[in-house]
Amino acid sequence: PWCSREESEKKRGRRGRREQTSGCEFYDESTSEQPFTAAMPSPRPPMPLEPARKAMPPVVPPAGTVAADGSVQTSATGSKSAFAAAGSEARNVMSAIKKYESEVGLAYEEVPPDLCDGRYLELNAWSLIANDNTLKQVADATRHRMETRAEMVMQELKYDERISESVATAKKIAIRTAAASVGTEYLHLHGAAAIGDLGMKEIGDHCFMLKSLDIGGAFKVSDVGLRCVALSCTGLTQLNLSSCLGIAGVGLSVVGETAPNLTSLNISNCQQLANWAFQKVCSGCPLLEDVNLSHCLKITDHDLKVMAQCCTRIRKLNVRDTRQVSDGGLVEVAKNCPSLEWLNTSRSEMPFKITDVGLLSIAENCPLLRHLEVQGCDCVTDVGLTWLGRGCRCLVHLDIKNCSKVTNAGVRSISEGCHLLEFLDLTNIKRVTDVGVRHIAHHCTKIKRLNLSGLYLLTDGMKRDFGLEGLQALSVAAPDLTYSALYTNRLLLPTPYPQTLPLQQTMHALVTTAAPSTNPTHTHTPPFRSYLHLVGCFQVSKVAIQALAASGFVRRLEDLSLAGCVRLHEAAFINLAHNLGCLRNLNLAGCTEAVTDKMVEAVGRHCPLLEHIDLTECEGVGAHGVKSLVVHCRRMISMDFTGCNRLNDVAMLPFADATFKPGIETLVLVGCPGIGDTGLSWICDGVFDSLVLLNIKGTRCTTSALRSCLDRFRYSKMRKNNTFMGLYPERRWKDRVIINEYGTIYRSAAKLQAAYRARVGRRLAQEAKEKFYRNWVATHLQAMWRSKQARAFYELLRWEKARKDEAQMVLAGFAKIIAAMEILQGLREEAYLALANKCAIVVQAVYRGRCGRRRVARILDNLRIQRILEDRCARLLQRVYRGHVGKLRFKQMLKEHREWLAKCIKSASKLQRVWRGKQARRRVAAHRYAIEHRAELEQYSATLLQNRFRLYRCKNIIARAQAEKARAAVAALYVQTAWRARCARMELDIRKQVRQQELEEKAAIALQCLFRCHKARAIVQELKDARDDYARRLDEAAYMVQRAYRGYQARLKVLALRENMDDLQRKMIELENWAAIRIQSGYRGFGGRKLYKIAMDEHKRAWKEMYDQEEMRPFYYNQVTGEIRWRKPQALLDLMRRPLCTNCEFYEAAVECQHCCEFYCNQCWDQVHCGGKRRNHKFRSLFDFYNSRVDYGDDEFPSKWPTEIEQDDMIGWQLRVGEDHEREPAAIQGVWQRFDDEEAGRNFFYNTLTNEGMYDKPPEWSQLEAAEEAKAVAEEEAKKAAEASSAWGGAVGNVAATIEPGYDAGYDEAGYEHSHYPAIDGSDTANAGYEVSVWTKAWDESSGVPYFYNSVTGESTYDRPPDYQQPAAGAYGGHVDTEIVPVAMGDTGVFLKKVVGLERGISGGPGIRDVASTEAAIETSHRGHPRRPPSSTARLAAVRGREGAHGAIGT
User: Fold this and answer.
1) What is the 3-state secondary structure (H, E, C) of 65-103?
2) Mean model confidence pLDDT for the chain
3) 95: how many CB neighbours lie within 10 A of its CB?
4) Facing residues of 1379 across strands?
């Protein structure tokens, strides 16, 4: 503001020099002349200095910055042109910088100089890379501003006559003025662990106007560096030395000597600090108001006494975990610091040192106390809280966490005395019950944050004679939780400082320049404006949740914790979630199965502002709940699903499309065995830009998958140990984000500036080019004009000469011309006579044409005029018609308007009557409220006067007792006996007075109770009378209103019915058309889907699996398109047979267990496998989200699917041996066919019924071969029986067996194995003495496994029955003749068999079984079958097969 940029560049160039200090290089350049640092420094890169000046560029832009000349910045140390000039050394530096950037991952190696220039420097976020060079830059920038300002002041003082005689005086005045106007006043580098004494010395030498200094965490700074700053910066008002382990005491004592205006001091965690140094600071800084001594182990009560006596203005004191401080120190502080407002005495060690004595002293001497924390002080009891409630009426924040001796009485004293209480923490106070919560609800009407965690006696409460208790009382009497103005005011910064927000609350403010708060602990903004914690309150159930849902204070609740509340009710919680629109944090950890998906879905839908949710050990949470949270809660920051074992990869799918703003940071999935690499990939695809902490311990995610996703997470590193596996954030990752975003914005701004400069350069070049061309064109035009003028003059001269020559020639030939003219005149007369006739003819033709055109023009004009007249007449007619219609419409509207006015007048009269009644009721209610309020005020005033009177009387008694005790102590030196007697009398008097006071209090309480009861009864009677009168009048008015309203509603209903009838007829016609269209479209869709299914089946069967001998791995080939893939196509996976559930054997399996090697459907998995010892078995889903088969292969988790080679062979053979191929089988046994593979030297077996193929011989093949042999034996026996038929009377000949060639006697077309079946009537005389089996073994083609059927009970089972017997050939000692009878059954072509049994030695002859009766009996037995029966074809074939032979045909 005081000099141009060119002058500033020249001054910086002259002063640019390099200094060597302890091996570190510092550059004395500055880049900004502004006295204040803006929120964002100017993104324009500085102009490069001239090479002759030998000065480094003042700004170190980040890598990728575009310089002013258009070159690209290749690293964070300079431009491309500068490194090109340096040669090989510069290239080495470039490689080192690139290596550093790849390791560190930051855009800057040091703090940019732009941020080091200003009066108010808030560099806490940049402390990660701050070092001594940063402090050097701050000091140099300050010195440069001061020198520039001092030169200007010197120029002004030259004209001042008062000091013109002394140059030294002028310099002192100039330096003092410059320091006061442009000197650095605030410097905050909290957490800068790399700064040391060298940087502090630079600050002390040049920033001597410093007022606020924050170097918390700088453990390298020692007493030397602090002493340098203290000796120079005598105006310090705020000093933060927290965790500065190198400061022992000498430097702090110098601060006490040189900084008398110090008001804020933070030395927390300085365990090595000496006591005398702190006392030195207190004695030298009497204006101290804010002192933080937390975790200072050497501070004692004596130090607090010295501080209290020297610094009487203390308003804020923090002695948290200062274990040597006891009640003595607090008493001294309370006596000498009456303006104390903020006090923290929390303890984790030696809690017995803080007792009720300290609270008593604070209550008596600190009436302005607003904030008190005594958590962990076990010796604090109800007595201390009683004194605190009576003395500290302004208390707003009270934390008595883990004070186990506090009961309901103490809570009542606090709630009755501190009506302004907004924060109350009662965590783990086991003796507080529903009674204490009732007192809080009734008296603390401004409570906003309440923590009731660990109160295991807290219940839903109940309704008593005097009101509600417990959480019901809290829900009824609790206020509407809103944001407290206290914290809002504390966020406002002092007026001279720029207004900014902390870096922790916004990621957009990359650089802030606001002055810091005096102590972050004291002015910390609460994370949530209002909250309610009920952690561990396991008795809280449906009643309390419903009461909270019905109350008004939950509508603006931001933090709700119900962890450990295992009795939550689903419907009540969903109702509660509807009112939690402002909720930001929800904790349901440990609620086990009480939390369901519906509850989580309700939270997701109705809590859009939710940021944190903890569902640890909530076993009822599944994929639907997670989806609802991800879709609706866009502001989510952290999610914890530890122990939610129902979550799987499908539950992680919504994360792939998640749109969190600003983004989720923490995701915990510990103990979720259903989540694998697929779910991890979906998470990485969706939230990789914001996620920094991911814990997948206990899942099926592999380390290789996690390592492959690691490069996406810039601010996280991989960690794996016994309790953690996943991504862990880098140290101070938020500061890293801020630094990198600043670098990105800087590079973007540099690119924009480079583009703008290039554009300006092009514009200037274009303007110069245009100017050049203008000058060139002007010069050429002048030359052309001159040449033209010369040519014109030359032509003039030539013309003059030619004119003279021509005149001479004219005079010479004039005579010739006269003679020629006479001859020409004669010729012209002859030609004129010839031409006259021709001209007359032409003129006549032209005249006739002109007359014709005039007649045509007149006709066209008449037509145009006629058209215009017609248009005018039409407009006139339309105008007249519109006027007539408008008049009719106006009359109709006027009539409607008059009717509307009549209705309005009628409605207004009715509204006036209602309003007058409402006003009367309101006045009555106000009068009644005034009476009740006056009674409450009288009661409160009486109670307050009694308390004040008792307190005053008690103080007088204690004062008189102390005075008497003092006089007795003096007299005891002379007369001990008299002193003892006096003391005894005094003690007796005090006891009498106390007894008298107790009697008076009891009598007063009894009188007050009687008076209140009498007054309450009178009020109740008055209220009853008024209520009865009001109800009577209300009924009369209601009758009248109802009568009028019914008439009005009836008229409206008649009109509505008429309109509905018309609409119904119209809609019915539309519905018929719509229904016809829908039926047609549905039929077309059905046909199209059928054709599509057929086409898709053909398309899927075009794939073939083959084997590559070179790669030693299978590949897949499409026979139609020629496409080749290494991974199995989904079409082949869809064609694979889906296994059935091993447990129920009915539904298709969906899950496979590794340990059990079994398949389960979802129902059986949830009911059978999820509990007990098998809940930890590893499993995987057979199908994905779209019900498509998943190709797991045979790597980590072997399955029961056939290997790839077997599938290749099967599919290859099926393509050659199926129905569409011509290859003939080598052998046929029932439904099985055998093909010989001559090349491989083995046989392939194919099932024509199930399309199943295998190289191993199926067990049915051996049985079929045995049956074939039995059939041959049966044929021989039949022949023998035919020969012996004559002895039987010809009966055998009628039933001779005719065995059909090629038919399998042991199996029918359905593949069923025959066993012995007794006769339907139960008489099996032919088999007497042999035990008959009632079980039949059959083959189920749908599942591919055999099952057993009981012909007596109709029972079916896949397990082999214990009484099942395998029948052998000839078991009945006789022969069986079998007759195969083909019976048509639709299109199935099943052959039914009649079996005629012949038994020798039976007098009754052969028995023929009735096939029809057998079929009917079997069909009847199958109707009540409990399990899934085989197909109808297979069942009927089994019934027919039951008539098979007993001996030879059986297996």
Assistant:
1) CECCCCCECCCCCCCHHHHHHHCHHHHHHHHHHHHHHHH
2) 76
3) 11
4) 1394
DSSP state of 128: G
Which of the four pLDDT bands, split at 50, 70 and 90, describes residue 268? very high
CA pair distance 531, 541, nearest whole angstrom? 19
* pTM: predicted TM-score of the whole model, two decimal places: 0.51
Element (H, E) at 681: helix 677-687
Q: What is the pLDDT of residue 467?
A: 66
Tens digits of per-residue pLDDT, 1110-1144? 877 788 888 887 778 777 787 878 887 888 898 88
- Counts for the chain of helices (H) and strands (E), in that order: 33, 41
Task: Write the DSSP string, 1134-1189.
Answer: HHSPPPBPTTTSSSBP-EEETTTTEEE-HHHIIIIISSGGGGG--EEESB-TTS-B
Residue type, 753: Q
**pLDDT at residue 1194 above 70?**
no
* Paired tokens of 462: 């109940």
* 423-458 pLDDT tens trace: 999 999 999 998 999 889 888 888 889 999 999 888
Q: Whose CA is closest to 645, among 605, 616, 667?
A: 616
- Per residue in 605-638, pLDDT tens? 999 999 999 999 999 999 999 999 999 999 999 9
Residues in the chain: 1451
- Centroid of chain to Cα 654: 11
Question: What are the residues facing 19 on neighbouring strands?
Answer: 26
What b/e readout covers 1101-1130, taking b as 16+ CB neighbours within 10 angstroms?
bebebeeeeeeeebbbeeeeeeeeeeebbb
More confidently predicted of 1199 and 642: 642
Buried b (16+ CB within 10 A) or exposed e, 18-39: eeeeeeeebbbbbbbbeeebee
Distance of alpha carbon 77 from alpha carbon 30, whole angstroms: 16
* CB-count burial class (<10 Å; 0-12, 13-18, 19+) for 877: exposed
Interval 417-425 mean pLDDT? 92
pLDDT at 233 > cutoff 80: yes
Dmax over Cα atoms in the chain, in whole Å? 188
Instruction: State how far the Cα of 1101 lies from the Cα of 1109, in Å rounded to an integer.
Output: 24
Q: How much helix, strand and coil, in percent to the nearest 5, is found in the chain?
A: 50, 10, 40
Q: Quick one: pLDDT at residue 1343?
A: 60
Would you say 95 and 119 are in contact if contact means Cβ atoms under 8 Å apart?
A: no
Tell the burial category of 1057 from Cβ atoms under 10 Å away from its Cβ (0-12, 13-18, 19+).
Answer: exposed
DSSP character at residue 1286: G
The model's pLDDT over 655-697, given as tens digits with 9 standing for 90+, comes to 988 888 888 999 999 999 999 999 999 998 888 888 999 999 9
The tokens for 106 are: 């930051």
Mean pLDDT of 1420-1431: 37
d(C-alpha 930, C-alpha 1371), whole Å? 109
Distance of alpha carbon 970 from alpha carbon 823, whole angstroms: 178
pLDDT (0 to 100) of residue 919: 85
Residues 6+ apart with CB under 8 A from 483: 529, 530
Six token digits for residue 405: 């001796």
Position 11 pLDDT exceeds 50: no
> What are the CA-CA distances from residue 1192 to residues 678, 684, 910, 970, 1169 (Å)?
12, 21, 78, 98, 22
Q: Which residues contact 1424 (CB under 8 A, 6 or more apart)?
A: 1354
Give the span between the Cα atoms of 12 and 971, in whole angstroms.
84
Three-class SS of 1314-1352: CCCCCCCCCCCHHHCCCCCCCEEEEEECCCCEEEEEECC
- Inter-residue contact 334 to 364 (CB < 8 Å): yes
Q: In terms of DSSP bridges, do strands 1151-1153 and 1158-1160 run parallel, antiparallel, or are they unpaired?
A: antiparallel
CA distance 401 to 1038: 57
